């Protein structure tokens, strides 16, 4: 499905939603997905590589899943850190609705699913995990990451998964040389790289 559908989808009707059996945070769970969101039939391979490579999320504070889709990353953070506040952010209303439904279904009460413009401006995440929307194009991706990485707390960390064939290494170079962030490749598997990224030196 072309990525522009992600930006226009309205919440899925009862008939459009389907259940999916997944393993998140080491637990076998049933979640709801629907067409019109990213990877509705399984947990995406890149997302699985990310979730295998990240450290335990901070136990408290604000944690962000940037580009949450139906929620595999945000739900994992929330299950692992029940005392933290998890912000699941996406431009796709259908995805946000599915995250809310999935959080309710799993009895998780610490996820807030919001559009980017509804994120409190003062939010300063200690951790940001993302399978970012590479297909929005380089300029939009750089703007998105520049905005979000500058919001990290001084010792906050982002973990980003990017497909090697979709420019992981040039993104790594831009994050370091262009944005001035500390960056380390912490995993490379199945054609994906996972980058650990700190706040840009220029951030207040
Ligand atoms: C590669 S998908 C990852 C989805 C989900 N995290 C997963 O692992 O299945 C990227 C997501 O970013 C979302 N997205 C696109 N532009 C965005 C933006 N400006 N801000 C936040 N999310 C955005 C897309 O709608 C899509 O759901």
Question: Which helices and strands, and how do they pair?
Answer:
Elements lengths: L4 H4 L8 E8 L2 E8 L10 H9 L8 E5 L5 H9 L4 E5 L3 H14 L4 E4 L12 E4 L7 H12 L7 E7 L4 H11 L4 E7 L2 E6 L7
Parallel strand pairs: 3-4, 3-6, 4-5, 6-7
Antiparallel strand pairs: 1-2, 7-9, 8-9
Bound molecules: S-adenosylmethionine (SAM).
S-adenosylmethionine (SAM) binds next to helix 3.
Can you walk through the features of this model?
This protein is α/β, with parallel strands linked by helices and 204 residues long. It is 29% helix and 26% strand. The chain has 6 helices and 9 strands. A 7-stranded mixed sheet has the order 5-4-3-6-7-9-8, with helices on both faces. Strands 1-2 form a two-stranded antiparallel sheet. Strand 6, helix 5 and strand 7 form a beta-alpha-beta unit. The longest helix has 14 residues. The chain is globular. The N and C termini lie far apart (39 Å). The structure holds S-adenosylmethionine.
Strand content: 25-35%
**Net shape:** globular
Number of helices: 6
SS elements, strand count: 9
> What is the spatial order of strands in the main beta sheet?
5-4-3-6-7-9-8
Bound molecules: S-adenosylmethionine
Overall structural class, as computed from helix and strand content, comes to alpha/beta
């Amino acid at each position: 499905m072309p990525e522009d559908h992600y930006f226009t989808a309205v919440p899925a009707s009862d008939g459009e939603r389907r259940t999916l059996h997944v393993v998140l945070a080491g637990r076998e769970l049933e979640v709801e997905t629907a067409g019109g969101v990213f990877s509705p039939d399984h947990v995406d391979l890149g997302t699985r590589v990310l979730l295998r490579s990240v450290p335990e999320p901070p136990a408290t504070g604000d944690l962000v899943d940037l580009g949450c889709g139906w929620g595999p990353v945000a739900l994992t953070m929330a299950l692992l850190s029940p005392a933290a506040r998890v912000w699941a952010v996406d431009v796709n209303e259908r995805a946000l609705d599915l995250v809310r439904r999935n959080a309710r279904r799993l009895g998780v009460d610490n996820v807030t699913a919001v559009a980017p413009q509804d994120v409190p401006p003062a939010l300063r995440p200690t951790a940001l995990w993302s399978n970012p929307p590479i297909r929005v194009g380089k300029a939009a991706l750089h703007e998105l990451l520049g905005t979000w990485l500058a919001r990290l707390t001084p010792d906050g960390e982002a973990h980003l998964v990017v497909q090697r064939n979709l420019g992981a290494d040039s993104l790594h170079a831009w994050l370091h040389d262009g944005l001035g962030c500390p960056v380390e490749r912490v995993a490379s598997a199945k054609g994906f790289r996972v980058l650990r990224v700190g706040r840009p030196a220029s951030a207040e």
